[in-house]
Amino acid sequence: MWKAFKDKALLAWQLTLPEWLTLVEAWWILLGFYLALWWVSYDRLAATPRPILNEIPDESSVLVFAQRLQRVVGMAARLHLLPIACLVKALTLRFMLGRRGIEAQLRIGANKAATGLRAHAWVEIQGQPIGESEDLTERFKVMDVQINR
Question: Which domain holds residue 112?
């Protein structure tokens, strides 16, 4: 337990003030989506309106910005008191990117393993998975998810 706390403290010392503020924002949004998944349909969550903030990065740095934001969301998930699954992280990342004016797509993939069906959720920008391994599309077949409005 002490090692886990020490690792989290070291992680926290590496953050700048804007990253700390983004981390706090991500922590609360993760909590919101975690709780919302119990009471709100996936269709409604995936279609969550995304307000726009005036933090739109220039076109060349969108992927770099999204990768940094994905790492902060991952840190917030590790620091969370609740067990945060990939769907909650993906919903949070897509929401936070949308707030900053970056259009992102939520993807869900599945594969059949010897132990049963495995699934994973992630975010893509311009067809590029954010913060995922390069063999992601080999490991998971992307499901065509239709959102009913």
Answer: 2-142
Q: Is position 39 within any domain?
A: yes
Among 110, 112, 92, residue whose Cα is nearest residue 100: 92
- What average pLDDT does the chain have? 83
Rounded distance, CA 142 to CA 109, Å? 4
Tokens linked to 135: 């063999």
Residues pairing with 125 in the sheet: 128
- pTM for the full model? 0.81
Instruction: Please count the CA atoms within 13 angstroms of the CA of 121 that sit on its side-chain side.
Output: 17
147 in a structural domain: no
Which range among 59-63, 108-112, 122-126 shows the weakest confidence by mean pLDDT?
Answer: 59-63
Q: Is the dihedral of CA 130, 132, 134, 139 positive or negative?
A: negative
Would the pLDDT of 146 be above 60?
A: no
The total number of structural domains in the chain stands at 1
